[in-house]
Amino acid sequence: MRLLCGLLLLLCLVVWATEARKGGKGRRMRSRERSSTTKRFAADCKESTVNGEKFFDCQERHLKAVLLGWPEDIHHLLLARNRIQVLRDNTFSHFRNLKSLDLQQNEISRIEEGAFNGLSRLTTLLLQHNRLQVASEGMLIPMPQLKYLRLHDNPWRCDCQLESLVRFIQVPSNRNIGNYAHCTEPREFWGRQLKKLDAELLCSPQQENVLIPHPDNQPLPASQKKPDATSLCHTYVHPVPRLDCRNRDLKTVPADIPLDIVRLDLSRNNIKQLRPKEFVNVKDLKLLNLSGNSLESIDTASFTGLLHLGELDLSNNSLRYFQYGVLEDLYFLKRLSLEDNPWICDYNIHYLIYWLKHHPGVSHTGLVCSEPEEFRGWPVENYVKTYNADCPIDKQLGQVPGTDPAGITAQELTAEIDEEELGPIPYRGPKKFEIIRLT
Ligand SMILES: *[C@@H]1O[C@H](CO)[C@@H](O)[C@H](O)[C@H]1NC(C)=O
Ligand SMILES: *[C@@H]1O[C@H](CO)[C@@H](O)[C@H](O)[C@H]1NC(C)=O
């Protein structure tokens, strides 16, 4: 009996010991897993070099903090769309070469005064779309080179604590510091721009006086604010400066597109027309996406200045033809998307075909007649060929200088004469056409 009890006890002990060992091992394994996950986090970030500058891309990694072990010689640190809440003193102090720091779309609600210590070369700091209510000028002191500071879309509380920052933003030479940031609190300052706020009022002891209605103190209804690109759209700096204004219900191209933008997405809005020189300052633009708008007309000078544009997406709009000259500035265009537009196959469309013919490097898609009935579904090129084949007399007249409609230059004429297939000057007024028919 005692032996049996002893055996049972022993058995229990063995089982318990085995379980305990298993459990212990399990716990150890879990903790090893955890540390390797952390490592993978760090490794998941991508380092790359563009034009000799090092980028470290840690966007959208669910990060709550800047991790140890990141390369220290980087120039651009991309931390957008993470979950960082607080920036503590000296968080970035080992990144001595840093030129830009992208912290937009996090959950930052507090920045300690020494958070940016050591960033003596930083020129660009993006803090838009966070939860900041207060900040002081002191946090900016370690960054004497700072030129661009974005603070919009934070719930700024415009009181005495914000005074030094507001005064700094308003220094005339700080042109690109804190633009478009608005007060959320107190109520009487709601919607007012930090840039234009009377800093005297922030610390005035009789702040209550401000409550007395004053035309300038009325919050602006959101609909009356002039849409500007940086507050409406998301900006990205990696791998190239990009502005994403998709689906913003825009009726016009927004003002103040940052000058360094390379890719601009304005698709799925409600833009009906492009005005002259809409993009003239955005000289580096390589991709312009206007797909899914209601574009009916494009001014002949709309694309002025876009010398480097490589890709233009105009698909899914209401375009019927291009005015003569619209495309003349697009020297380096490679791709032109034109599908889902009601192209009308009459003489107005000839300019487009003519231009494409003389820019064989441009690949285009979607150029199909939707009207008139007899040409519906035809590739526009085929329609133009038919037009030319039908009118051989045009071919001869077209080559006589002086009989051409205004606007055709000598160079275009020469090029035209070299063409065999396409024949006459494609751009031709209807009157002239009629006169020829009559003779
Ligand atoms: C333009 O935007 C549309 C809709 O957002 C998208 O489907 C299309 O791929 C974009 N075009 C280019 C060239 O990126
Ligand atoms: C065309 O644009 C409209 C409006 O933006 C959008 O709803 C629709 O999905 C687009 N169609 C295609 C084929 O992309």
From TrEMBL:
Record keyword Metal-binding present: no
Signal sequence range: 1-20
Domain of life: Eukaryota
SUPFAM superfamilies found in the cross-reference section: L domain-like
PROSITE patterns: LRR
All copies of domain LRRCT, residue ranges: 154-204, 341-392
Record's GO cellular component terms: plasma membrane
InterPro entries linked: Cys-rich_flank_reg_C, Leu-rich_rpt, Leu-rich_rpt_typical-subtyp, LRR_dom_sf, LRR_TM_domain-containing
Keywords associated with the record: Leucine-rich repeat, Repeat, Signal
PANTHER family: ANTIGEN BSP, PUTATIVE-RELATED, INSULIN LIKE GROWTH FACTOR BINDING PROTEIN ACID LABILE SUBUNIT
Entry protein name: LRRCT domain-containing protein
Organism whose genome encodes this protein: Onychostoma macrolepis
Source taxonomy: Eukaryota, Metazoa, Chordata, Craniata, Vertebrata
